[in-house]
Amino acid sequence: MTKNLERNKYLDTLFRFKDIDLIKIITGIRRCGKSTVMEMFKDRIIESGVPPEKTLHMRFDHPDHLWIEDYETLLKEVKNNIELSKGSYIFFDEIQNVEGWEKAVGAMYALGADIYITGSNARLMSSEFTTHIAGRYVEIKMHPLSFREYVKFGKDRTGDLKEALDNYKRYGGFPIIALFESDNKADHNMILSGIYDTVFLKDVIERNEIRDIVTIKNISRFLMKNIGNQTSVRSISNYITSKGGRTHPMTADTYIHYLETAYLVCRGKKYDIKAKEYLRTADKFYAADLGIRNNAVGYNEEDRSGVLENLVFLELLTRGKEVVVGQVDGKEIDFIVKEEEFRHYYQVIDNLYDEEVKKREIRSLLSTGDNHPKTIITNELYPAKNIEGIKVVNILDFLLEEYE
């Protein structure tokens, strides 16, 4: 791997926590690059002087380790291959495939090993895990490539950033897509279909032992199609009925949770700014990657606003922010970044030249009645950089800007 393919944001985070008395857990959707980053980190610490025999890397989605099915076998195999003590480094990929793995990890941790784990399902952070490792871990949430990373991976070969952004909107940010040299759209879609099908089969269907595959597939399609729209369990139930099926609202809610834990979709919780509380009304949902979203439900110009909103939501998550959907006096604010007492409000607008839309969105931002930063992100270039104290930025500039 050449240097420009390294994802320094995540590598730097791992180095900050190296030798800190915490288990490091990298979570995220399959194929987003977790294993590659962990392998790079392991190589880096060996280059820094750690003897290779003081490191052990096991992949539980690889034929070499598929036979390890329970924590007792795992602990025995690890002890046969490395001395567990301070100064030893253990790397586990997709450890959720091992029954009771948290017991083995707890035992290794107690012996002083520095442990790094990847997992493609949020159930990795289950109550069983927190019982055995309570307060002794840090979660590093990993996403497919941000647009800045996508460009660095070589997807601006023509020097046309707008074209690169169009491709990013359509095919998403999985590293394999960014590194793929073919310009054949069918080839990209074959890769994306493979990723989606694997995630759906392994991390949704098999992990949760789902029998009603048709219903959960329809729910997945509904959420992917309606990115950026308020979504209620009732609206999903009505959709399933329109497809000739039936589902109980509680079942639909459970199925949504399964899709979230597989990192296929992300939830934007609704937050009332003045009441300072989360609302139990319809949340919004966004695709974890636009490529698999478009591959699953197609892409057309009618999706422009939703895709733009999805882009901004994912970018804010990638920056490590807590992001919620805002409401104030019945008006909606697309996103609020919450950091203790600090807030940043974002309104995402496809076309700011529409005067009625502009007035409505500005009115929503100003109705917060505070002096926290406010930004409008627009799809089109707009001559003014500031409207009534509100910053205006083009989506391309927003995605490429430096940030803390």
Question: Which helices and strands, and how do they pair?
Answer:
Elements: H1 8-17, E1 23-27, H2 34-47, E2 55-59, H3 71-81, E3 89-93, H4 101-110, E4 114-119, H5 127-133, E5 137-141, H6 147-155, H7 161-171, H8 175-179, H9 185-208, H10 213-225, E6 230-231, H11 233-242, H12 249-261, E7 265-268, E8 270-272, E9 277-278, E10 283-287, H13 290-297, H14 304-318, E11 322-328, E12 331-339, E13 342-349, H15 355-366, E14 374-378, E15 386-387, E16 390-394, H16 395-400
Parallel strand pairs: 1-4, 1-5, 2-3, 3-4, 8-11, 13-14, 14-16
Antiparallel strand pairs: 6-10, 7-10, 8-9, 11-12, 12-13, 15-16
Helix pairs in contact: 1-2, 3-4, 4-5, 6-7, 7-13, 9-13, 11-12
Fold and architecture overview:
It is a single chain. With about 400 residues, this protein is of the alpha/beta class. It is about 45% helix and about 20% strand. It has 16 helices and 16 strands. It has helices at about 10-15, 35-45, 70-80, 100-110, 125-135, 145-155, 160-170, 175-180, 185-210, 215-225, 235-240, 250-260, 290-295, 305-320, 355-365, 395-400, and strands spanning about 25, 55-60, 90-95, 115-120, 135-140, 230, 265-270, 270, 275-280, 285, 320-330, 330-340, 340-350, 375-380, 385, 390-395. The strands form three sheets. It has an eight-stranded mixed beta sheet with strand order 9-8-11-12-13-14-16-15, with helices on both faces. It has a five-stranded parallel beta sheet with strand order 2-3-4-1-5, sandwiched between helices. A hairpin with a 4-residue loop joins strand 8 (about 270) and strand 9. Helix 1 crosses helix 2, helix 4 (about 100-110) packs parallel to helix 5 (about 125-135) and helix 6 (about 145-155) crosses helix 7 (about 160-170). The chain starts with 7 loop residues before the first helix and ends with a helix. The mean pLDDT is about 90.
